[in-house]
Amino acid sequence: MGKRVAKEVSIAVADAVAQCRVDVISAYPITPQTHIVEHLAELVNNGELDAEYIPVESEHAALSACIGAAATGARTFTSTSAQGLLFMYENIFIASALRLPIVMVIANRSISAPISIWNDHSDVMTIRDSGWIQTFAENGQEAVDLVYHAYKVAEKCLLPVAVNLDGFIVTHVVEPIEMPDQELVDKYLPPLKMKYKLDPKKPITIGAIGVPEIYTEAKKALDEALKASYKVIVQAWREFERLFGRKYQPVETYKMEDAEVGMIIMGSLAETAMNAVNEMRKKGKKVGLIRFRLWRPFPMQDFLKALGKVKALCVVDRAVSHCSTGGPVGIEVRSALYQSNKRPKVLNLIAGLSGRDVTVEDFMEMFEMTYESISKKPKFSYQIYGVKE
Amino acid sequence: MPKDTGLVSWKDLAPGMYITEPGNSVKFKTGDWRSHRPQLDKEKCIKCGQCYLLCPEPAYEENEEGYFICNLMYCKGCGICAAICPKGAITMVLEEE
């Protein structure tokens, strides 16, 4: 087994990427992703990592270079945050539609304006419909483990994977992290072999026009591929558990077995929310927590199973979907419930925008609000929590 | 207007809609939305081949007699051949004519 060492999470993530033996790294620095790509540049410069590091002129170019490199069968990596992700936008959809196994770490940060470098999920929620596999880490160890998993899944499914970790809250924290031995990573992640790739010896066309007679079929094929990736994602976590000893699943629950009120949150704030669950339980209130580790493909059955028999559910979103029916997670959850027989009351709150602290007390208050919603119908479909009136 | 229907099943597409057979674009008919077609006057033609060289499609092919003949399955009717012909041997005529 590997050694448990204190490391800044960004550095650990970069080391994990290096352990995956990437061929091409193409990235443009942006806070709070910077330390990840800086460390990779160092590793390449020092001769510790045999990879091509392309210091591109923009994020648009960063993903473009990854697309080109991946199309030739190279293992690729990029990373970004907020505005950088938005600058990549058109290429995001191309990467998935062309079925290229690119791995991108997104150090989640809120979108301008106003200019903000702090954490929420408004950046990644803009690509939720893009056809990328998307996972969310809660802490440093999970962020590192999700990197190995991302390559495994991307290359088996031929789909790009975005690993999300909260900017600063996760990226810049020093944590004890167990880095696995290289041999173990090599065992988990065999060299990339692509059936179809750009090769002058066997020419193919990638990125051809999709006339009306074929575009629909291309979209259906991508949709089915993403749907089919679910099995591979779960299997890759099982294999990870066998080799590395840490267990992961699409949906994480905390004390949901007998819960009457549940809460859903994604990312690092779930750790704070777990403390709130403990405090509420001390007061005799049976509450629990659900966290989506896998966001795309949406783990419908795991989610419905995790719900148990809750009477009410508090969905805490970290992004605004202006004047729609809720936050991005809230909309998704309500839609999922409509397709099942379960009908808990859903209270959708938006909190923790741009790094605003959400404390244990805040989460306890949210739980109390959710209890009230059982008997009293909320007057809103979503609400921005903690806003100063 | 005929309704657009699919060409192939989504199950038969290569991942990412890659085209794995090189040069298969010749199977794709691109000449069906032309409004004008080139008409060659063999009396004037000197077989210089400029139409063949400059056709962007390329739709021109040389026949046994050495004339360059436009394949109307691919011709989009752009008229470059008519404009470039040094002898004025090619005229663009309306499709309806």
From TrEMBL, chain A:
Domain Pyruvate:ferredoxin oxidoreductase core: 259-363
Record-annotated Pyruvate flavodoxin/ferredoxin oxidoreductase pyrimidine binding domain positions: 16-234
CDD domains tied to this protein: TPP_PYR_PFOR_IOR-alpha_like
Organism, scientific name: Caldimicrobium thiodismutans
Record's protein name: Pyruvate ferredoxin oxidoreductase
Keywords associated with the record: Oxidoreductase, Pyruvate
MF (Gene Ontology): oxidoreductase activity, acting on the aldehyde or oxo group of donors
Name of the encoding gene: porA
A single GO BP: carboxylic acid metabolic process
TrEMBL record, chain B:
GO molecular function, one term: metal ion binding
Record organism: Caldimicrobium thiodismutans
Annotated signal peptide: none
Keywords on record: 4Fe-4S, Iron, Iron-sulfur, Metal-binding, Pyruvate, Repeat
PROSITE patterns: 4FE4S_FER_1, 4FE4S_FER_2
Domain 4Fe-4S ferredoxin-type, chain residue ranges per copy: 36-65, 66-95
Protein name: Pyruvate ferredoxin oxidoreductase
The keyword Metal-binding is annotated on this UniProt entry: yes
Domain of life, per lineage: Bacteria
